[in-house]
Amino acid sequence: xxxxxxxxxxxxxxxxxxxxxxxxxxxxxxxxxxxxxxxxxxxxxxxxxxxxxxxxxxxxxxxxxxxxxxxxxxxxxxxxxxxxxxxxxxxxxxxxxxxxxxxxxxxxxxxxxxxxxxxxxxxxxxxxxxxxxxxxxxxxxxxxxxxxxxxxxxxxxxxxxxxxxxxxxxxxxxxxxxxxxxxxxxxxxxxxxxxxxxxxxxxxxxxxxxxxxxxxxxxxxxxxxxxxxxxxxxxxxxxxxxxxxxxxxxxxxxxxxxxxxxxxxxxxxxxxxxxxxxxxxxxxxxxxxxxxxxxxxxxxxxxxxxxxxxxxxxxxxxxxxxxxxxxxxxxxxxxxxxxxxxxxxxxxxxxxxxxxxxxxxxxxxxxxxxxxxxxxxxxxxxxxxxxxxxxxxxxxxxxxxxxxxxxxxxxxxxxxxxxxxxxxxxxxxxxxxxxxxxxxxxxxxxxx
Length: 448
Description:
Blueprint: H1 5-14, H2 24-31, H3 47-75, H4 78-81, E1 85-93, E2 96-105, E3 109-118, E4 129-135, E5 139-149, E6 154-162, E7 172-181, E8 184-190, E9 206-210, E10 217-219, H5 222-228, E11 230-234, E12 249-257, E13 260-267, E14 275-281, E15 292-299, E16 305-316, E17 327-334, E18 337-347, E19 355-357, E20 362-363, E21 367-375, E22 378-385, E23 396-400, E24 405-406, E25 410-416, E26 419-425, E27 435-440, E28 443-446
Antiparallel strand pairs: 1-2, 2-3, 3-6, 4-7, 5-6, 7-18, 8-17, 9-11, 10-15, 12-13, 13-16, 14-17, 15-16, 19-21, 20-21, 21-22, 22-26, 23-24, 23-27, 25-26, 27-28
């Protein structure tokens, strides 16, 4: 927020007032000694003028400078909120206000809390999903709504991004260009398909797909298909099986290829973010776990596969599954509103204190951990090579000085500058002064 010279004199005077209701500096110092917030308290020139101005303006100024952060304290864990550096940065466009409330980062990750509020209409709800957004210097974003206040039409979001080292102490530009809201969710959609009637596909019912010329896919079987290079998928548009209340996709073919069940779907792509998946349930409605994959592709005018996302082929390994005793179900989401605008702010964040042990040599089959660091946000493993293990198989924990053990709720993996980085994220902040050691798959890394 910008002030003219008179307003700045008033604000500096008001900044000298410490209220018992909200003393963020004292609270932060009590919780995390390592974080120092640079409050600048200046000497008041005129006590009489300052007192008068306080009586007139203190309520409005306090509301502007602390209300957003106070509300955040009531929404998320106070321990997390007190790790954040309070930020007052607001941008309005198209009748919608965005505010950056607070942020924190270490060398690998930044976390930013923001609010989005509709000031004129009803375009923001609990399904809000930031669609096009950016933070200069960061990558691999994740956006999650943590609270929605219906009365004020305000959503609070947690933004997580990798690239913390590039962000520390620099003026950052955060921007949002579009978002989705009023999503429609179609859960437990019964496809009505009799799975016992599905036949094997012969060579005339299949077409080749180059796995190096597709936009993506996922699932347990995806790496296997990638390694094959060229795989067979079902010939497109041989069926038109519509699902209840779903008008943005339909099942375009079904058949077995190499003993695996292929279910091909065709999407209109009229919506910005229509998506979903298929799954199986038993007689009691319980979801059945099995190896599966999904592959995106398109076709040309002659029906040959090409790069695109018009089709999604879901592939299931149904070995040892009695298909007469299960149902094929679907979960689908269609966006409602697609709102565009230009919400942009700039701010700075300072890195949290870290402990680092750089003389590690923890060897796995295809990669080596060379460095381990601990920050209030979690544990980071930095190494070289390629990790061929699932993140769930890598066990990381912290031994605290009070002999308690801390584990982690989420793990992410990415490569940067030829280094393999695995981030173990803690849902509650870590007091790194109490960290005794980190245990990685049974190997103990001690910290002084």
